[in-house]
């Protein structure tokens, strides 16, 4: 098989890091939600998540000020709402109302959980050293929630330019990890 050159501006479409999440924040003007695709696990105990949020995003300033947020993990049934949240700004729109999402109180942070998402991770900002340069926040998960009724969640994964894939087949291989 012969490979050919690939545009550097599209490399991100090859390295999809995980499911799209809905990031919720709290502020003086109420709760907000944004769609985010660029995150990665950094550590397991305590759980640390690295995520990229552009300084052009409304949520960037809210997270920088409050130093907390919730990462809500939707399933494919919420795909239209996820895209809607990604294509609008909370500076102009109440996304909870527009996209029919339900804010529920979190236990350890002011930002809300999204009831319709199968899992929610309450987070506090643990490290900001790369925020100004790269928009890279390190978050510590301080409380995790999951809906036990959802046995095989079909999460959505952003491939770029309006393309998504849905988590599908699962395989099991020998592993020493818990």
From TrEMBL:
Q: Which keywords label this protein?
A: Flavoprotein
Q: Name one GO molecular function term.
A: oxidoreductase activity, acting on the CH-NH group of donors, NAD or NADP as acceptor
| Statement: the UniProt record of this protein carries the keyword Ribosomal protein | no
- The keyword Flavoprotein appears for this protein: yes
Record's InterPro entries? Flavin_Rdtase-like_dom, Flavoredoxin, Split_barrel_FMN-bd
Q: What cofactors does the UniProt entry give for this protein?
A: FMN
Instruction: Give the Flavin reductase like domain ranges.
Output: 14-164
Q: Which Pfam families match?
A: Flavin_Reduct
Q: Which family does it belong to?
A: Belongs to the flavoredoxin family.
Show the PANTHER family listed in the entry. FLAVOREDOXIN, FLAVOREDOXIN-RELATED-RELATED
Q: Provide the protein name.
A: Flavin reductase family protein
Taxon lineage: Bacteria, Pseudomonadati, Pseudomonadota, Betaproteobacteria, Rhodocyclales
């Amino acid at each position: 098989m012969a490979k050919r050159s690939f545009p550097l501006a599209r490399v991100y479409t090859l390295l999809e890091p995980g499911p799209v999440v809905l990031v919720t924040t709290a502020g003086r003007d109420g709760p907000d939600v944004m769609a985010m695709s660029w995150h990665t696990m950094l550590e397991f105990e305590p759980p640390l998540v690295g995520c990229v949020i552009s300084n052009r995003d409304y949520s960037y300033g809210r997270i920088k000020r409050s130093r907390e947020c919730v990462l809500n993990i939707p399933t494919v049934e919420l795909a239209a709402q996820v895209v809607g949240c990604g294509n609008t700004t909370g500076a102009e729109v109440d996304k909870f109302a527009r996209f029919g999402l339900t804010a529920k109180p979190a236990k350890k942070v002011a930002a809300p959980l999204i009831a319709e998402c199968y899992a929610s991770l309450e987070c506090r900002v643990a490290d900001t050293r790369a925020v100004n340069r790269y928009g890279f926040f390190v978050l510590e998960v301080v409380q995790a929630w999951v809906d036990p009724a959802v046995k095989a969640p079909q999460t959505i994964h952003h491939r770029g330019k309006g393309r998504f894939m849905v988590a599908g087949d699962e395989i099991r291989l020998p592993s020493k990890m818990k």
